[in-house]
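Researcher: We plan to redesign the surface later, but first we want a full-length starting point. Tokens attached.
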């Protein structure tokens, strides 16, 4: 496209300006300020603590609040939790909980399709931030958040979101920096206040936003797909580290109403840990969980598919003689894949009918899953060896 044909009228000016200016200032003004004034600014320990607090508070505002509570209703929360995530969610400058959830529900319903607001098939840049900078199509009317529209707290935040965001996200940390410096009798409280504004306000906003954007871009492009290949979503432990556990996106798209994203014991999902802890002190309840058997059924089905595909691929590359020699191995792998598919189907039926699946059956099936995993591994190794 020639530059003069660029659809200027489709640019979202306010959002674009905010996103670009804050990102540029974080890359220029913030390092310049630190380099120039690091000796004069007093109270660095406090400023760093303020940054960490704001990073987590606004991050959880999005992951625990906007995402798992409001978009997916994966648990119910008492008003203090709601108020906290609405205040700090606003301070992450990702729009109101109502608008965010409306977009996000469409994303799940139409993932990878044209209607998907951050459709990855339009490319990495578009899914990451492009969809916010310019609109390819007029915004459709919001019809999928009736439940949230009935919540007065959500509607209050929706009405005043930019004011709340500016106050909680910028004014409060600046004031806290100033107050801390004044109480401690520092020589120039305004320098501490400026550092608090730049680091806990500005820089923190950009870091949290980029984290969220990575879910829509990286987690639809790079990573594993242990639960389903029907959509582009992927599990990425690295992105989970940056986003309070939201990186296990393949699981999340498969089971969107589960309050957990990192469902395995070893996975890093602090959002899940906080929700669980809040439930123990009675601040949240009705945590929704997918049963272990239902999850295992999805894993078995996906593994059977991958195994079948890999075997077919490998067999098609072998010459006639080798294929005859390996016929038994190929047949065995196909049988295992078929067996897995059958077991996955019956396990899914069992778990949907809420029947108890015995521990022996579960561990037998986990054994099968591991067996298939090992078979896939050795196949890939053999394939790589023969290609070399
Ligand atoms: Zn997604
Ligand atoms: Zn989601």
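Model: Full-length starting sequence:
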């Amino acid at each position: 496209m020639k530059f003069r044909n660029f659809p200027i009228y489709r640019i979202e000016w306010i959002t674009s300006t905010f996103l670009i200016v804050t990102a540029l200032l974080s890359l220029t003004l913030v390092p310049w300020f630190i380099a120039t004034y690091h000796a004069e600014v007093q109270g660095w320990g406090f400023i760093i603590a303020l940054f960490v607090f704001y990073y987590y508070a606004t991050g959880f505002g999005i992951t625990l609040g906007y995402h798992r509570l409001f978009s997916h209703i994966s648990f119910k929360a008492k008003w203090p939790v709601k108020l906290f995530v609405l205040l700090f969610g606003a301070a992450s400058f990702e729009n109101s909980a109502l608008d965010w959830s409306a977009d996000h529900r469409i994303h799940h319903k139409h993932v990878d399709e044209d209607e998907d607001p951050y459709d990855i098939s339009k490319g990495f840049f578009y899914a990451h931030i492009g969809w916010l900078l310019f609109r390819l199509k007029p915004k459709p009317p919001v019809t999928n958040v009736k439940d949230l529209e009935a919540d007065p707290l959500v509607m209050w935040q929706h009405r005043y979101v930019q004011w709340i965001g500016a106050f909680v996200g910028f004014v409060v940390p600046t004031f806290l920096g100033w107050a801390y410096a004044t109480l401690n009798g520092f020589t120039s409280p305004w320098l501490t206040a400026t550092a608090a504004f730049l680091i806990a306000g500005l820089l923190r906003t950009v870091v949290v936003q980029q984290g969220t954007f990575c879910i829509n871009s990286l987690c639809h492009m790079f990573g594993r797909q242990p639960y389903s290949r029907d959509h582009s979503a992927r599990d990425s432990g690295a992105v989970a580290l940056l986003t309070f556990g939201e990186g296990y996106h393949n699981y999340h798209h498969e089971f969107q109403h589960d309050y957990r994203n990192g469902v395995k014991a070893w996975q890093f999902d602090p959002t899940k840990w906080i929700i669980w802890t809040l439930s123990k002190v009675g601040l949240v309840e009705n945590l929704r969980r997918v049963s272990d058997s239902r999850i295992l059924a999805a894993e078995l089905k996906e593994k059977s598919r991958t195994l079948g595909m890999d075997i077919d691929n490998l067999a098609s590359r072998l010459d006639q003689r080798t294929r005859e020699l390996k016929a038994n191995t190929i047949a065995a792998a196909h049988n295992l894949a078929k067996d897995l598919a059958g077991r996955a189907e019956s396990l899914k039926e069992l778990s949907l009918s809420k029947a108890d699946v015995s521990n022996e059956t579960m561990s037998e099936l986990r054994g099968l899953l591991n067996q298939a995993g090992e078979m896939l591994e050795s196949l890939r190794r053999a394939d790589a060896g023969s290609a070399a």
